[in-house]
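User: Reviewer 2 asked us to show a designed sequence for the structure in our supplementary figure. I'm pasting the structure tokens here. Could you produce the per-position amino acids so we can include them in the response letter?
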């Protein structure tokens, strides 16, 4: 069998084309395979374990590698190593595991290592309640590691999006050479709904950019480019230096000069900031005539949509705005929204982690109010939101 025929055969085996009734975590695993992921390292943890269990079965079918590590620290380290061989790699965990991974996530940012980190969030802090859904890691994804850096994080709201946005996470990781979070939660991870998986030819994938010439470490500018440097992956003849220490475009360390740190940090950050319009995804509805906007994300956006429908039926001009991309934060889009509506209601399954970013982005042009769920760890009751809307109108 030729390599081309083998590749096509494996690709079709990796993509379970058709209509499925599928759990969100399983859809995530299938999305990873469809995106070309061929390495997974992880450690079992509720409510993300089904991703690892499913990939343990499926990876061997597509000549991929599945490794259950000794802990989450080893998991993200293995993912980084696999990525530097040119393989699309991912891990999946929950909040306590994300806490353990933070140092190596920072290392992946600094070394510009593409990978996907799935966080199926649960109640915390500490071990909390493993089975209770939460959005408590929203800020941790943005600022969990030390230093100054930018990160990409996207938030699915359904099993279908667990499939679609996992593919998007890999595409973003490859395009911008950076770790990308998929910020799910136990609601979405354990929910079962219809999932439509397209034909392989209909799935748009981003390939990794690597240098065209095999040269020495002082000849390949393989790091720190605002337009993303080609990645001199290991095992393909490149000679490169990969270090988490401050370095130049060639990977050579400079741990003395402040100017070197300034260049290092700004290039890593501008690589994301200057391409924010390409990265940020939002979803909105019923905003054309709205004077009240509901902002919510992930699983909570489902309650936001339900509340909007009830409010409109009751005669209120309410619309929804959903940040699909949490980081980089859609500041410009929310600033524009604030100039259009008078009131913004922010729904989150936490004590207001994104709320303060929303309020700052409005520049005082809208009245912004946070509405937590009646009970943390549960979805918002649309009736509760409707009562809040009524109170704003009186």
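Assistant: Here is a per-position design you can include in the supplement:
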């Amino acid at each position: 069998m030729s390599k081309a025929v083998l590749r096509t055969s494996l690709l079709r085996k990796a993509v379970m084309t058709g209509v499925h009734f599928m759990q969100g975590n399983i859809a995530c695993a299938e999305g990873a395979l469809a995106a070309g992921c061929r390495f997974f390292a992880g450690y079992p943890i509720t409510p993300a374990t089904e991703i690892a269990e499913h990939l343990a079965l499926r990876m061997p079918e597509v000549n991929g590698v599945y490794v259950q590590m000794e802990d989450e620290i080893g998991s993200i380290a293995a993912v980084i190593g696999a990525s530097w061989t040119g393989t699309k790699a991912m891990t999946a965990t929950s909040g306590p595991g994300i806490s353990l991974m933070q140092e190596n996530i920072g290392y992946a940012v600094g070394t510009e290592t593409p990978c996907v980190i799935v966080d199926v969030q649960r109640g915390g802090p500490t071990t909390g309640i493993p089975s209770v859904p939460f959005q408590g890691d929203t800020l941790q994804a943005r600022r969990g590691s030390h230093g100054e850096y930018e990160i990409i994080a996207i938030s699915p709201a359904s099993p279908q999006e667990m499939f679609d946005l996992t593919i998007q996470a890999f595409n973003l990781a490859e395009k911008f050479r950076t770790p990308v979070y998929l910020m799910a939660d136990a609601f979405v991870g354990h929910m079962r709904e219809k999932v439509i998986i397209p034909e392989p030819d209909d799935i748009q994938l981003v390939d990794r950019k690597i240098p065209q010439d095999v040269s020495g470490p002082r000849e390949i500018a393989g790091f720190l480019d605002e337009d993303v440097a080609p990645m001199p992956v290991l095992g393909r003849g490149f000679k490169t230096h990969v270090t988490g220490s401050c370095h130049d475009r060639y990977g050579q360390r400079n741990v003395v000069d402040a100017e070197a740190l300034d260049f290092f940090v700004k290039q890593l950050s501008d690589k994301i900031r200057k391409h924010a319009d390409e990265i940020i995804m939002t979803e909105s509805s019923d905003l054309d005539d709205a004077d009240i906007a509901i902002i919510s994300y992930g699983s909570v956006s489902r309650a936001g949509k339900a509340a909007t429908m009830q409010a409109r039926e009751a005669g209120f001009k309410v619309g929804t705005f959903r940040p699909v991309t949490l980081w980089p934060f859609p500041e410009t889009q929310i600033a524009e929204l604030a100039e259009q509506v008078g009131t913004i209601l922010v729904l989150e399954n936490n004590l207001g982690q994104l709320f303060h970013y929303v309020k700052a982005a409005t520049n005082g042009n809208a009245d912004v109010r946070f509405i937590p769920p009646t009970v943390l760890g549960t979805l918002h009751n649309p009736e509760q939101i409707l009562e809040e809307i009524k109170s704003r109108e009186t």
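For the response letter, you might also mention the following. The chain is about 40% helix and 20% strand. The longest helix spans residues 159-176.
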